[in-house]
């Protein structure tokens, strides 16, 4: 009898990007159809929220159903705090209540079916803080707390905000969990693809109704995150990178009502990347036997 072959430990690194992160659901749908299930997950911001739902063992169909429900304008408005705080536009309390209802108020990382890392940024030390244990809901709230939009999450001596500031596609954190093959999903525009003096291949994010000065500040932030992400990916070397083609007018503030369109974009991108992923997930002994 021939010895059984085992595939490498498979990890997902799901990036942040507000509504653009809904594309992750399309990624998960294709993986499920192929019978491919990630062993470990690392996520940032929206990637962290969807990654946590996936790590909990929820079927992809239920995750999609929840995301499509969130795309309804009336439901989105119910998640917004009525009175802005001095720290941010939203305190995040209503959203945290929603997360408690969906995930369980007392849920912890230890309750998850798959290991999970949620990436945050600490405003006190300026360092990345990776959450892998303890209460789950505050960690989920922290990873998506975009400064100015959601108030920071106070956790011990830390003031935690969106992990995308420092590590928007956390391939290295998936490897820390033991992943041998990492599929990285980057849903923000890849500005490093643009060259000076040429027609841009990647369009700037559109921010309607935002004053020009504020728009420029936000755009500068996206450019910086994109450059840092490109550098991080160069260092961490994911086995497969997928960048869904998403509309420029869908971003961290707008486009949440277009979930079906974004999920479909994720499906198309993942379908195109399947051959490379299947090749990466081939068991080492199977590869060795073909080379004899």
Please report the total strand number as a whole number. Answer: 8
Question: What's the number of helices?
Answer: 10
pLDDT averaged over residues? 90
What is the terminal-to-terminal distance?
19 Å
Helix share bin: 40-55%
Beta fraction: 5-15%
Structural class: alpha/beta
The stretches of 5 or more residues where confidence is low (pLDDT under 50) are: none
Order of helices and strands: EHEHHHHEEHEEHEHEHH
What is the rounded Rg? Answer: 19 Å
What's the overall geometry? globular
Provide tags for this entry:
single chain; 8-stranded mixed beta sheet; alpha/beta; globular; 10 helices; 292 residues
Describe it.
By secondary structure, this protein is an alpha/beta fold. Helices cover 40% and strands 13% of the residues. It contains ten helices and eight strands. Strands 1, 2, 3, 4, 5, 6, 7 and 8 form an eight-stranded mixed sheet that branches. Strand 3 and strand 4 (128-131) form a beta hairpin. Helix 5 crosses helix 6 (136-143). It starts with 9 loop residues before the first strand and ends with a helix. The model has no long low-confidence stretch (mean pLDDT 90).
């Amino acid at each position: 009898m021939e010895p059984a072959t085992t595939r490498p430990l498979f990890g997902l690194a799901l990036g942040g990007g507000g509504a653009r992160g809904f594309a992750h659901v399309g990624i998960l749908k294709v993986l499920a159809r192929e019978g491919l299930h990630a062993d470990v997950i690392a996520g940032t911001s929206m990637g962290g929220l969807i990654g946590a739902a996936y790590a909990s063992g929820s079927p992809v169909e239920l995750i999609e159903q929840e995301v499509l429900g969130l795309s309804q304008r009336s439901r989105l408005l119910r998640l917004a705090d009525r009175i802005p705080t001095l720290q941010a536009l939203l305190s995040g309390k209503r959203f945290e209540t929603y997360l408690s209802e969906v995930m369980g108020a007392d849920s912890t990382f230890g309750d998850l079916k798959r290991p999970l890392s949620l990436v945050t940024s600490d405003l006190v030390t300026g360092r990345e803080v990776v959450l892998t244990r303890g209460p789950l809901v505050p960690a989920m709230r922290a990873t998506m707390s975009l400064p100015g939009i959601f108030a920071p999450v106070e956790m011990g001596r830390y003031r935690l905000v969106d992990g995308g500031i420092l590590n928007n596609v956390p391939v290295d954190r998936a490897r820390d969990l033991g992943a041998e093959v990492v599929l990285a999903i980057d849903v923000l525009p890849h500005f490093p693809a643009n060259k000076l003096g040429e027609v841009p291949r990647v369009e700037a994010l559109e921010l309607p109704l935002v004053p020009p000065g504020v728009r420029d500040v936000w755009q500068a932030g996206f450019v910086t995150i994109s450059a840092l992400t490109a550098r991080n990916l160069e260092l961490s070397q994911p086995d497969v990178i997928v960048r869904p083609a998403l509309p420029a007018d869908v971003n961290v503030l707008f486009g949440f009502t277009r979930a079906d369109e974004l999920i479909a974009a994720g499906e198309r991108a993942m379908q195109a990347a399947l051959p490379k992923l299947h090749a990466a997930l081939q068991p080492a002994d199977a590869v060795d036997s073909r080379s004899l």
